Amino acid sequence: MSRFYVGSEIGQLRKVLLHRPELSLRRLTPSNCEDLLFDDVLRVEEAGKEHDVFAQTLRDNGVEVFLLLDVLAETLSSPEAKNWVLDRQVSEYRFGPTFSTEVRSFLNEMDNAKLASHLIGGLTVAELNSQCPSPVLQMMHETDFILDPIPNHLFTRDTSCWVYGGVSVNPMAKPARKRETVHLRAIYKFHPMFKDADFEVYFGDEDRNFELATLEGGDVLVIGKGAVLIGMSERTTPQGVELLARNLFKTGQANKVIALQLPKARSCMHLDTVMTHMDYDCFTVYPDIMRNDIPAWELTPGKAAGEISYTRIKDSFIKAIARTLEVPELRLIHTGGDVFEAEREQWNDANNVLTVRPGVVIGYERNVYTIKKMEEAGITVLPIPGEDLGRGRGGARCMSCPLERDDI
User: Fold this and answer.
1) CB atoms within 10 A of CB 128
2) InterPro entries recorded for this chain (predicted)?
3) Catalytic residue numbers?
């Protein structure tokens, strides 16, 4: 039986889920990129080549790589899984009673690989090629999307996150990303690799409106020793943090959550865009955001079942992390260069590195000033190209969902 467990941010990485750029990014245009949460359009072929280098770098370092499109297609080979997914994406409340039947029939007739491609890449009116009389269709144009593309699937870190012996299938903050969660829920329920595996599902695996309780994996750092560091950011709310914490404590998978208040800004949409863990006592941070005076709380199990105890951290979150990791102090590697160079490199994900084992990280080669500082601190940086991938505003950590990683 496969083992799914993530015990840290820095232990040996063994299995990871990635998503190679595909149809959804080819449908990203200057007119729709903002609605789809991108700042720019990518050269998809070049981004694909860069992603291949990323995946091969992982394989060269002993990591088993799974690709989301393939895993979703394999999941859809189960008729039960296919019906489950379509029930949640093609309803009469979305398309009306007549047009929903037409769309459902069209998607049902696709083979699994093509269906997976269109669920992620979108479906246009022209591709459906329907004469359905419903005004829902008749009022649309040939290039309108019936199913919107989901280019943010590139960032597999966010939609689900493995924390010790379980997974949170996250309620996403933005409408453009909410359908991603359906795909990950289906994979963890029905794919042969997961359906008989032994793991907890902490949060998000329900057909409900989560209202203000949103959570994204870029804000969740499994720092080890039973602790989790979570940023309350543009995308992750205190409500989401508390609900995840309650279930982590209930299942006994974690004993502490350190929650940080972050600015609600695009440049630091998630904690991992300004702070990641590289070695036992070493983090990379963007100091303009990660200041000592950031408001922070420790959440621990309360006395009664289901209760949470809250403690406002009085000294600093840096000292709280050091205490948790049982190290005298943390080594903080700041974003490199002068104030202008550091701001540019942070924007280009200099601090968003993926640790493959203690002291060895993957990051974009373009961030030369930050790489220099990391190497001077004894960190080995495995550089990958990111001239096009980086336009998506996500680095190596953003583009990876660890499925198995060792404790520290």
Assistant:
1) 19
2) Arg_deiminase
3) 398
